[in-house]
């Protein structure tokens, strides 16, 4: 957090100091420590997420202690478990209903690549229908791995420009997934 520096006030000016930084860094720091996760759990990885939210691992230490079960109030979608192709449109609708900015974590082998279920009915990774920011490997991943995934999202959020969501590259990515 060395980007935000406390600078001494000039002589004759009251106050102990002021912050010298950019608005991007301040907003990024605030966003990174106030993530509201939306758990989309379908199988065993959801149990590991429940352990992560428990008192032993305490996801609240990282500013994500308020899981939201409404997509309109969440900004971090955590997809955990096997996603059937019939469930794909539902997952995409949940993603679309989330407010910008939004981030996605694919937790476990099934959400990342279909896992051991190489069948016609299982989606081979959620990145077929929505963009994914962080992949958490494992079958099922340990709570420490999920915490690491959340910390990686925090780094991404902290360093993301406020203008990124308006860039042509981002709009092109959303168009690739059919999202306006």
Automatic annotation (TrEMBL):
Subcellular location: Cell membrane
Assigned keywords, A-Z: 4Fe-4S, Cell membrane, Iron, Iron-sulfur, Membrane, Metal-binding, NAD, Oxidoreductase, Quinone, Translocase, Transport
Residues binding [4Fe-4S] cluster, per UniProt: 44-45, 110, 139
Gene Ontology CC: plasma membrane; respiratory chain complex I
Record EC number: 7.1.1.-
Catalytic reaction equation(s): a quinone + NADH + 5 H(+)(in) = a quinol + NAD(+) + 4 H(+)(out)
Cofactor(s) annotated in UniProt: [4Fe-4S] cluster
Top-rank taxon: Bacteria
Membrane topology: Peripheral membrane protein
Manner of cofactor binding, per the entry note: Binds 1 [4Fe-4S] cluster.
NCBIfam families hit by this protein: nuoB_fam, PRK06411.1, PRK14820.1
Annotated family: Belongs to the complex I 20 kDa subunit family.
Assembly mode: NDH-1 is composed of 14 different subunits. Subunits NuoB, C, D, E, F, and G constitute the peripheral sector of the complex.
Known role: NDH-1 shuttles electrons from NADH, via FMN and iron-sulfur (Fe-S) centers, to quinones in the respiratory chain. The immediate electron acceptor for the enzyme in this species is believed to be a menaquinone. Couples the redox reaction to proton translocation (for every two electrons transferred, four hydrogen ions are translocated across the cytoplasmic membrane), and thus conserves the redox energy in a proton gradient.
Protein name: NADH-quinone oxidoreductase subunit B
Organism the protein comes from: Hufsiella ginkgonis
């Amino acid at each position: 957090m060395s980007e935000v520096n406390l600078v001494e006030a000039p002589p004759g000016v009251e106050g102990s100091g002021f912050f010298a930084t950019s608005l991007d860094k301040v907003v990024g720091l605030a966003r990174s420590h106030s993530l509201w996760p939306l758990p989309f759990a379908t199988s065993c990885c959801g149990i590991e997420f429940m352990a992560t939210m428990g008192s032993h691992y305490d996801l609240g230490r990282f500013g994500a202690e308020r899981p939201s079960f409404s997509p309109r109030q969440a900004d971090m979608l955590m997809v955990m478990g096997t996603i059937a192709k019939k469930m794909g449109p539902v997952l995409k609708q949940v993603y679309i209903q989330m407010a910008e900015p939004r981030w996605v974590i694919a937790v476990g082998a099934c959400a990342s690549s279909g896992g051991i279920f190489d069948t016609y009915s299982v989606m081979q990774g959620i990145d077929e229908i929505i963009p994914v920011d962080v992949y958490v490997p494992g079958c099922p991943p340990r709570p420490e791995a999920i915490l690491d995934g959340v910390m990686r999202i925090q780094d991404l959020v902290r360093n993301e420009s406020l203008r990124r969501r308006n860039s042509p590259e981002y709009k092109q990515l959303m168009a690739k997934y059919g999202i306006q």
